[in-house]
TrEMBL record:
Protein name according to UniProt: Phosphogluconate dehydratase
SUPFAM superfamilies linked to this entry: IlvD/EDD N-terminal domain-like (SSF143975), LeuD/IlvD-like (SSF52016)
Swiss-Prot/TrEMBL keywords: 4Fe-4S, Carbohydrate metabolism, Gluconate utilization, Iron, Iron-sulfur, Lyase, Metal-binding
Reactions catalysed according to its record: 6-phospho-D-gluconate = 2-dehydro-3-deoxy-6-phospho-D-gluconate + H2O
An example molecular function term from Gene Ontology annotations: phosphogluconate dehydratase activity
Lineage, top ranks: Bacteria, Pseudomonadati, Pseudomonadota, Alphaproteobacteria, Hyphomicrobiales
Length: 606
């Protein structure tokens, strides 16, 4: 089944725009495939170092270039719940590789930071750039040229985008992404949010807040709300980089382990040494990228991916724009209600039919490109399934259910929760911005009010505590862009602005920073580009200027004349406080090199 005409038209536009860069990229990976994917190019000294710890039989096999060698790139650490399960994965993968007649080695580790730990802290200013550091770290592991394919162990916010950028840079190698899965459900996310709000209002203490947070984040696996981490897993499956049905199976279960072993075997089956060679750089094309964007809209996914998807696509020579993302949002209905876009968590989504149901519905509606390549083979239809554990301990798959298991969580394409996706691009005299509307009530999507201007989220929170945030207003928080301070998420604003909105005030946020993947009910124009530090108009807003944010029309304006705005001197930036401490001084060069948010906020050229 082919994609609908409007989806095809946007895809063709991306293809035409990307023609030159994509052809150059494919030429590079074809050249790399001719020179690598074997160890014969290594000198005897090179090879001896590369297999020094292998068994005698493995050395003979690797030396003769007779069996595939699988590189494992892991983001394991035992502090972060989402990545702690990866501790056992390398041994599972090595054993599965051995049973399949191959070999597996850990190629290298990459850093994995948790935005949940660093929200509102100085370390958050390293978060976005950790994506590009992860890509470089993975490249170092793969640079040894010992591998015929690679598997990537990663889950959370910047880790998966960084790993995919690395995988596409080594695009001549097949790549399979292996998730760890979400933790089991704790207290409902809306209950946790209520306690946060009570704490911000001084109605409960720190002990009650910590108890609620600990009951929500309580064990191994990803957080259960639908933020960037779980949006990552959706993307990897709908883009064909997971094995079918792998995304949302809980850690430390027999099915999770069986899926991990299966993924290792599949990676070995698609190397250049076999008959199903599937280099990831050729596999991921414009259709795959569009499928990822469609999935993001259909599930009300993270705003962070309006940055990450552009950077990931660019790694494959594909030029994706915010306009493409916005037009796809207009074409794609919202089929999932998962917190913060609903009350359910990802475990409820999975139980209601999950990715298999979602992919089947989108395929049948002509909203996805079915004729793509995946790590599983040709076409996306084999992903319209549920993965289960067979009697022999292997993975078996059944067709996804024809009806949703919970109509409040997962809807068919014929009766969606809303006719369009949850993301929209805003344009106007303040530049370009992104807004997530899927959790914003329709009556809250247009705000026209005076500006209250802040240089940090702490300054806004201090104003709240001082009782200064009265009446209707638009909070302008600037000097939060990539070049200014690494574009941290301003998640601590969510609770404060939510309290004010619940009190009946009409409030909104305008910022050149990011919000969390869990951003929700308050209208927020984020990723404002150009950022204040680059002379963007957000730096010329004065206290009391009337700002109009219209998420329905897609506009963002400060209501002053063009002449007045041009005459104004940009506000001075005092960034000295963020130049040192918590490693921020080591990232000064990255801040200097960072591109614009609408270009992926990447430190890599082009």
């Amino acid at each position: 089944m082919t994609a609908r005409a409007d989806i095809e038209a946007i895809t063709n536009r991306i293809r035409e725009r990307s023609r030159e860069s994509r052809e150059a990229y494919l030429g590079r990976i074809a050249g790399a495939a001719g020179k690598t994917a074997n160890r014969a190019v290594l000198s005897c000294g090179n090879l001896a170092h590369g297999f020094a710890v292998c068994s005698p039989a493995e050395k003979i096999a690797l030396g003769g270039n007779r069996v595939p060698n699988l590189g494992i790139v892991t983001s394991y650490n035992d502090m972060l719940s989402a990545h702690q399960p990866f501790e056992t994965f390398p041994q599972l993968i090595k054993q599965a590789a051995k049973e399949a007649g191959g070999i597996a080695q850990v190629a290298g580790g990459v850093p994995a930071m948790c935005d949940g730990v660093t929200q509102g802290q100085p370390g958050m200013e390293l978060s976005l750039f950790s994506r590009d550091v992860i890509a470089m770290a993975a490249a170092i592991g793969l640079s040894h040229n010992m591998f015929d394919a690679a598997v990537y162990l990663g889950v959370c916010d910047k880790i998966v985008p960084g790993l995919l950028i690395a995988a596409l840079t080594f695009g001549h190698l097949p790549a399979v992404f292996i998730p760890a899965g979400p933790m089991p459900s704790g207290i409902p996310n809306d209950e946790k949010a209520k306690v946060r709000q009570l704490y911000a209002e001084g109605k409960v203490g720190r002990a009650e807040l910590l108890e609620a947070e600990s009951k929500s984040y309580h064990g191994p696996g990803t957080c259960t709300f639908y933020g960037t981490a779980n949006s990552n897993q959706m993307l990897m499956e709908i883009m064909g980089l997971h094995t079918p049905g792998a995304s949302f199976v809980n850690p430390n279960t027999p099915l999770r382990d069986a899926l991990t072993r299966e993924a290792a075997r599949r990676a070995l089956a698609i190397t250049q040494l076999g008959n199903a060679y599937t280099p990831v750089g050729a596999m991921i094309d414009e259709r795959s990228i569009v499928n990822g964007v469609v999935g993001l809209h259909a599930t009300g996914g993270s705003t962070n991916h309006t940055i990450h998807l552009i950077a990931m696509a660019a790694a494959a020579g594909i030029r994706l724009t915010w306009q493409d993302i916005s037009e796809l949002s207009d074409a794609v209905p919202l089929l999932a209600r998962v917190y913060p876009n609903g009350l359910a968590d990802v475990n409820h989504f999975h139980a209601a039919g999950g990715m298999g149901f979602l992919i089947r519905e989108l395929l049948d509606a002509g909203l996805l490109h079915e004729d793509v390549r995946t790590v599983w083979g040709e076409g996306l239809r084999p992903y319209a399934v549920e993965a289960k554990l067979g009697a022999d301990g292997q993975v078996v798959r059944e067709a996804a259910p024809r009806e949703s298991g919970d109509a409040k969580v997962l809807a068919p394409a014929a009766t969606p929760f809303q006719p369009t996706g949850g993301l929209k691009v805003l344009n106007g005299n303040l530049g370009h911005a992104v807004i997530k509307t899927s959790a914003v009530k329709p009556e809250r999507r247009i705000v026209e009010a005076p500006a209250k201007v802040f240089a940090s989220q702490q300054a806004l929170n201090d104003a709240f505590k001082a009782g200064e945030l009265t009446g209707d207003f638009v909070a302008v928080v600037r000097f939060q862009g990539p070049k200014a301070n690494g574009m941290p998420e301003l998640h601590k604003l969510t609770t404060v602005l939510g309290i004010l909105q619940d009190r009946g005030q009409h409030v909104a946020l305008v910022t050149d920073g990011r919000m969390s993947g869990a951003s929700g009910k308050v209208p927020a124009a984020i990723h404002v580009t150009p950022e204040a530090l680059e002379g963007g108009a957000i730096g010329r807003i004065h206290e009391g200027d009337v700002i109009r944010l219209d998420a329905e029309a897609g506009s963002l304006e400060v209501l002053v004349t063009a002449d007045e705005l041009a005459r104004r001197t940009p506000a001075p930036a005092d960034l000295s406080e963020g130049e040192h401490g918590f490693g921020r001084e080591l990232f000064a060069g990255l801040r200097h090199m960072a591109g614009r948010a609408d270009h992926g906020a990447s430190v890599f050229a082009g």
